[in-house]
Each structure stands twice: as structure tokens, then as C-alpha cells.
Amino acid sequence: MTLLITGADSTLGRALTATLAGTIQVRAISAYDGDLRDPQFVEQVLQGINSVVHLAPFVTRMPNVLDSFDLAARGTHHLAALSAKLGVKRFVLASSLALFRPEDAAQFRVNESFRPRPTTDPDHLCSWLGEVSTRETVRVNGLSTACLRFGEIVDDAAIAAAIAAAAQPSAAWLHVDDAVHAIQRALEIEIKGWYIAHISAGPDALVIPGRAKSEPFNFVASKTLPKGSLTVTPRTFAQIPPIGRPVRNVAILGAGGPLGTAITDELAKSYTLRLCDLKPVEELLETLKPQAPGAPLPTPPAAPHEWRAVDVRDPQQVLAACEGMDAIINVTVIRNDVAGCFQVNMNGAYNVMQAALTHRIHRVVHTGPYQVVSKGAASYEWDYELREDMPPRPGIEWLYLLSKLCGQEIVKIIARQHGFSVPALNFATFVNHEVPYGENINPLSVSWQDSARAIRNALEVESLPTPFELFHIGTDLPHDNFVNEKPKRLLGWKPQHSLDNFYRR
Question: Is 461 within a domain?
Fold first, then answer.
């Protein structure tokens, strides 16, 4: 076996390298050796490797939190995708049992069937983004992958230091030697596709072992740890109160695109708009062409509306753009540049939500592409009555979709943690109903005007059942491929352009 270990400069990475280096060929790398977001570097370090242990999302943090997210999502995708391409037989991803609520773990036997509940703690988000990116990548390429969720890794020195400081032992602790043993088992057993196992210190742990203690894993922690208390403090977070005044000022990020333009036309008579895009509108218009036949183009705003050049990748620019606003509409997007996709669609979404949190802006309208477009056996390609709340299947043929899914996950986590009201509208194809488009249109299509009306309804809806609600926005078409019942019911939206003329003989 030839093994690649990422995040090798961590406690777990060093212990794993020391244990295995005498028996197999180990290539151990850290963030100092190269950037996993660089496909050329990844391909280089994978040469001759037949197994990978990817610790980086669990242990590696960059000086800038946005770079940490990017490494966990984009870097993980490159590593998993190229591992499959180059013939790697086993991929082991390290993740965290801290993704579960401690109050749930103290009450229930939290096993692998429980849904993770990450918070906005960067450690949680990095581990979760690593899971999402790996899961969606190996779903497509079939790479044999074990996702091991570990407790809090401690070694003898850390335990001794805690005891010396009279610190309360934690029921979340896991000795590093037991974590190493679990990774060894994950490299040995037969696995097909995506496999999750919880790795903890035994029956007294906060999260007790589930699948890992059974066949074929047969993991048993051997290290005796000081017994920690199962009495935990429930997670509590500051809540964003509903706005107590009429919404008058609205920031639209991505206003220079056709959807942003359609929204501006829809809202300009009702609200004071701060229109934001990467460049001044006059500069955009010098090179901008319609995205599709009949797609709208922006125009310079007239008072009281204003235009601001804002880079959604820059947290300070986003923070300044949202100051004084009552609501935010985020329609920023990058589609065809891999690095830009994750920086705009994922990190940009994080920046928008952080700005909303800072300025106490309750209503954020988030947008993105529908996430059920993967092809092949694991897809919904030949299913009908597709709904918003189905598990995503973005595929990896177009990383724009995966980057948007990662951003959507971040928005959902922040919204739920702080009690925002975030309607998230997912689209596929926009059509000018008066312009010939072709013989067929996407089964989830909507006119530019109806899409803007959906955004208006999402902006103005009084309340939502939960802090984050996802909607497919598509018009009424005769094939029953997608169902638009939810936006009709919760947003009061009704498309005015059926577009069924594109299907008529």
C-alpha cells in the first residue's frame, strides 16, 4: 500500500504517520507543502498512491476563514475526483462528531442515521463542507470512501495538561491512538461507495460508537480516558428579531445580471434599491451582452436608487453595502471558473449572511440553481414530481452546482442558528416568453418577469414555517416533471406565463 495523508502536521496526522511509516509507504503533506485547491499539485501528490487519508477538513485551518472553507470544499473535491481518476482504491475522510448537538447526544444514542446539526463554528463548517463535497463527488465516481466522524482528539500530553489544570474531562474525548486504529480499520475493510462510521471512546462517550463496533468494522476503543460528564449545556445563539418596521431599503447583490435586472424592474417603484455588482454599471454595459435571447440588461439607476461596485468575495465591501438596509437579495453567481465558483457562490453567501447578522437584517432572499440535475443511476433524471425538499443531486460535471450547494448549506446553517427568515429560490432556465427559444425548454423554466415576481413575493411574505425554506421556481408546464406547489402555497406566487407554447405542436 502507498498512502497519502493530508493534514499531516496535526496531532492525528503525526500519530498516523508515525504508526504506519514503518510498515507501508506514506506520503504525508500539510498546507505548507502545497495547496489542494490546485489540481496540478493534487495530481502530482497522488502519483503512485493507492489509498488516501484526508484529514485536512477536520484539522487544517488557514489564516483566513474563507480560505479554510474553500480548502474544505474545493480542495476536497479535487482530491476525491482525481483520486478516482488516478486509480486510488480507498479514500478515508476525517470529520467530526461535534456536528451533532450535545444535548441530543446526551439524550439519545446518536448513530449514523442522525442528521448532523453543524453550527457556524468554522471547525463545524469545514468538517461539514468536507463531507458534502466528498459525498457528492464519490456519489458520481464511485470511489470507495469511508467518512469517519471523530470525537475530540486528545493525546496523553493533552489529558495530563487538562488534569493538571483541574479541567473537567470531556465525554467527547477520543484518544489519538484509537483514532489511528479506526483509520487503519477503514483502510482494511471492504467498502462500496460512501460509508459513515462514528468513532468515539466507547459506551461512556458523549456519542457512542454505532456502526463502527459492528461487522465489518469491529472497532473497539482500547484507551482508558478520565470519565467525562454527560451533563451538557444546550447550544444557544443570538436570534435575529423580525423587522419591526416596513421594509423600504433593499440591497440587491448581483444586480448587473439579467435576474438582478428583472428584479430591479419589478421592485423599483416600491422600494429604495442599492444595486451592487462587481463593476460600475457603465463599465458593465461596455461589454455586457444578453445572457440568452431576450434577456434583460441593466440600466444606470435614477435617484433614489443607487449603484455600488461591490465584490461579494470581500467581507468588508459586503458589510458596507448592507448597512442601513432592511432586506438583502443575493443573486450573485459565477458559473464557469472553478475557483471563482467557490469564492463567489460559497464564500460570498457566507459574507452576505455575516453582513445580515451584523446589521440585524431579518429577511435575506437567497438564490441558486436547482440541485437535482445529476445524471446516471443515482440521479433523479427519469423521475417525476420533483420537489424542493428532495436530497440534492448536483453531480460534478459542472462544479458551479456543487459550489452553490455548499453556499446553500452555509446559508441554511446560519439561518437556522440565528433565526433568520431566508427564502431560497432555486431556478433552472429563464425564458423571454415573447422570444423564440428553441424546440424544447428545461422542465424547470420560468419567464424573467415571473422569476422577479417570485423574488418580490419572497421578499414580502410575512413569515415562513422555518428560518430557511427552499423553493423550486418554475412555471406551470404539462409534463409534471417538477412541482411548484410550495411557492404557490407559502409565497402566494402564481406564474403568469405558462410557457406551454414551447411544448405545443
Answer: yes
For 8, list phi and psi in degrees, rounded to 5: -75, -10
Range(s) of the domain holding residue 386? 249-502
pTM for this entry:
0.96
Do 114 and 14 belong together in one domain? yes
Q: Are residues 35 and 175 in the same domain?
A: yes
Same domain membership, residue 253 and residue 204: no
Q: How far is CA 351 from the centre of its chain?
A: 13
In contact, 389 and 411? CB cutoff 8 Å: no
Same domain? For 280 and 416 the reply is yes
The three-state DSSP-derived secondary structure of 213-271 is HCCCCCCCCCCCCCCCECCCCCCCCCCCCCCCCCCCEEEEECCCCHHHHHHHHHHCCCC
Residue 505 in grid coordinates: 405542436
Spatial CA neighbour of 408 closest among 346, 353, 464, 357 = 346
Which residue type sits at 197? A
Q: Do 146 and 72 meet the contact criterion of CB atoms below 8 Å apart?
A: no
Q: Look at the chain and report how many structural domains it folds into.
A: 2
- Inside any domain, residue 205: yes
Q: Computed over its alpha carbons, how large is the radius of gyration of the chain?
A: 24
Cell reading at 212:
463502527
Euclidean distance between CA atoms 118 and 96, whole angstroms: 10
Last residue of a domain, one of 190, 213, 236: 213
Going by the DSSP 8-state scheme, the letter that residue 342 receives in this structure is I
Same domain, 112 and 195: yes
| pLDDT tens, the chain, 505 aa long | 899 999 999 999 999 999 998 899 999 999 999 999 999 999 999 999 999 999 999 999 999 999 999 999 999 999 999 999 999 999 999 999 999 999 999 999 999 999 999 999 999 999 999 999 999 999 999 999 999 999 999 999 999 999 899 888 999 999 999 999 999 999 999 999 999 999 999 999 999 988 999 999 999 999 989 998 888 888 999 999 988 888 999 999 999 999 999 999 999 999 999 999 999 999 999 988 888 888 999 999 999 999 999 999 999 999 999 999 999 999 999 999 999 999 999 999 999 999 999 999 999 999 999 999 998 877 898 899 999 999 999 999 999 999 999 999 999 999 999 999 999 999 999 999 887 666 678 899 999 999 999 999 999 999 999 999 999 999 998 888 999 999 999 999 999 998 887 777 7
Domain-located, residue 242: no
Give the CATH number of the domain where residue 274 resides.
3.40.50.720
Q: Please tell me whether residue 446 adopts helix, strand or coil conformation.
A: strand
Q: Does any domain span residue 121?
A: yes
Residue 81 burial by Cβ neighbours in a 10 Å radius (0-12, 13-18, 19+): buried
Shared domain for 186 and 333, answered yes or no, is: no
Asked if residue 439 lies in contact with residue 453, where contact means CB atoms within 8 angstroms, the answer is no
- Smallest CA-to-CA distance from 313 within 323, 303, 305, 321 is with 321
